[in-house]
Specification:
mainly beta
Amino acid sequence: MLYRKLFYFVYFMVTKCLAEEPYCIKESISPVADPTTLPKLPSEFQTRVQATFNKERTVEFLLVYDYYDQKAEIITQEEIEHDRRVFYYDKNEYFSIKNYRECKVKKINESFDEFNFFGLIYGPDGTINMKPVNDLLHFNNEFPHMYVGQEVYRGIPVNHYRSCQDWSELNANFLIDFYFSAVEFEQSVGFPELNVQVPVATVIKGYIDLSAKIGRSVSIENTYEYFEFRPFVERKSDLYVQPDGVYCHNQTFKGEMPPIPKSFSFTEEILLNDKQTAKTTKVYYSYDLKTIRYDTLATGNYRQNAPLKVIHDFNSGIGYVIDEFLGNCSINPLNNEQDSISLADSAGLALTIKDPNQFFFIDDSYFYAGQRLERGITCDVFVSKRTDLKALSDKQSDYWVFEIYFMAVSKRCFKVYISI
């Protein structure tokens, strides 16, 4: 598994058999720096990371960390494999998304077979949290640090710090060198008003005791270089969400959809990508009046693109088709269209109007998929896997993926996507 290879490097990127002596001792860190003088790490950030393992292999990934919202994400592209891990600590779920199409969901506190880079901490009330940023990057934590001096790293003037740390979860002893940009250095993506010293690189050297597993210790020499470090998360609507048109299996958090009113109107646009066609219709709906009107253009056997008003009157069971150009009107009995359902015990002979939720295929099968930006509007997205949709395409499909967008907060951006 890619992330196990990436972050659980202690089991994969090993080269040498070593003695049992520790690589470093904490007493060698002297003079110990005052923790209040060390660079402050932001509780929200994003950065590109280039990780080099034992000078043998390099991997690049995007690291996104948001302690305030208890969310995090890692995106990795290695050869042709694209891999995302999205963590929702506030919902106790993480998404594993492979190559934009395969998505599975697990509970964070039940995923003992996975290595979780962001950690797991239980609060006093039993809630789960991610590691604080200092524990995440192992800087200015419970271990002593020392200031080495100012140097130049990757052409950047940096302040060099060092720490000797024992990681009990890995049974490891590491000497860690941290390089932070100097205060006076202005970065191309810096934010002087925030007065942030950003991490430039971390170099980890040491031993891991794997005697219980392979009968020996192994050495580690890994370098993590940070690029485009930002002390906040940009475009959150593009992160923390599953890809468009993808259903994530085993998701448990449903969220709460806004209610649909009993009367409404809207303009819909249906795009059939396989046929390279688009159809636009104005819809007027009233559940109390038991009537729906569609303003559209004719297709099929009728005059192509003739402007039509189609009225479904469920009080009488009659449908009216009015040609606005010729002025003629056709009357037909309603059949089981997309906007109607059969009454119970009527053998399909008696129809009634779909209620607002039924009209939009809204039921308890939807799960919350996060927020996305649609037409410049931040929307809450809900997704469902369905088999009860009349085919809009010649394609055969085992199921349809429905995505419904609601404008976040009060007003609505209401949009339905159907993916085959």
